[in-house]
Amino acid sequence: MKYHLLMLAAFTTVLAACSEPADSENKKQAESPAVVSSKHIRITDSEQIRRGKKVFQQNCAICHGAKGEGKSPAPPLNGSGHAWHHSSQMNRRTISDGTKHLGGTMPAWKDKLSEQEITDVMAWFQSKWSDEIYQLWYEKVESKNK
Ligand code: HEC
Fold first, then answer.
1. How far apart are CA 24 and CA 86, in angstroms?
2. Closest CA to ligand 1's atom 19
């Protein structure tokens, strides 16, 4: 009997301990940004993503597919293709200048879209990337490009 009570006490302690970590974890992160610095915070500005979606549908979807899934010869931009291997600076250049000067077929957008619209459309297709892809991109590509 004594043993059972002890077990119960131990069990309750474990339960109490279990409910805590999430909380203290949050506090730790809030107090010291260093804890979260290894994880890049994704852009989740939905207003920007909504604007970018419009830009994409009006200008890019015809070649890259309605959801950026790609349509030959235009590659996917939704994270399943190669676009995440490039820094945002490189993707911006591709979008601004197109690829005709490189023997490709993508038109240049710099005279048709503003810098802001290009930023928005990149935010939109990046919002399609999984967290894993986004994290990999940030660590292996984007952060090395600064
Ligand atoms: C006329 C078809 C066409 C349109 C319209 C178009 N693209 Fe493309 N895009 C392509 C093709 C094709 C490629 C691959 C390079 C090539 O062969 O020219 C490409 C490549 C890209 C890449 C590089 C992807 C990678 O994996 O390296 C990005 C980023 C991109 N396009 C974004 C856009 C955005 C954003 C828009 C709209 C503003 C757009 N494209 C409109 C055809 C198009």
1. 37
2. 74
Cα dihedral 56, 133, 40, 110 in deg (nearest 10): -30
Please give the structure tokens belonging to residue 98. 């197109």
Q: Ligand 1 centroid vs 53 CA: distance in angstroms?
A: 15
Evaluate the omega torsion of the peptide bond into residue 107 and state whether it is cis, within 30 degrees of 0.
no
Q: What is the pLDDT, as a whole number, of residue 105?
A: 97
Dist CA 138 CA 143 (whole Å): 6
Considering only CA atoms, which residue is closest to atom 17 of ligand 1?
A: 104
Q: How far from each other are the two terminal CA atoms of the chain, in whole angstroms? A: 65
**Binned average pLDDT, 10 residues per bin, the chain of 146 residues:** 49 42 44 48 82 98 98 97 95 98 98 97 95 94 88
